[in-house]
Amino acid sequence: MIKLVLSLLFLTAICTGKIQLSKWNFVSQKDLKRVAVGQLGIWGVDKNDVIYYRQGSEWKTYPGRLMDISVGGSQIWGVNSRHYIYKRQHNGGWSHVGGRLVQVNYTIPCYVKN
Q1: CA atoms within 13 A on the CB side of 109
Q2: What is the distance between the alpha carbons of residues 19 and 87, in angstroms, rounded to a whole number?
Q3: Closest Cα partner for 15 from 72, 60, 69?
């Protein structure tokens, strides 16, 4: 596993029929091994599998432990150190999903029109 020491730079791309790219903006420095960005914000996990999310200009911890995290649309998915798959519920809890993975990547289609 590669440890990423991250000075997080965030590129905003909006999919509304065409992609509009903004400049890179410094967000903050946080020692994370995985980072996921989506409509539900910026999420990450550290080397101890602690889950973080951005609230305003601060990193906040989130209940649970994941070794990998993915944000797509209005959903957040993760995998823990035992390779069990979890999906974040609307009430904020985690729901176990059948199967096992090493890594998760959940995205929603984004169609770009010219």
Answers
A1: 3
A2: 28
A3: 72
Question: How far is the C-alpha of 58 from the C-alpha of 40, rounded, in Å?
Answer: 15
User: What global pTM score does this model have?
Assistant: 0.73
Lookup: tokens for 17: 């029929």
Is the pLDDT at 92 greater than 50? The verdict is yes
> Tens digits of per-residue pLDDT, 15-59?
434 445 556 666 667 888 998 888 888 899 999 999 999 888 889
One-character DSSP codes across 27-82: EEEE--SEEEEETTEEEEE-TT-EEEEEETTEEEEEEEE-SEEEEETTEEEEE-TT
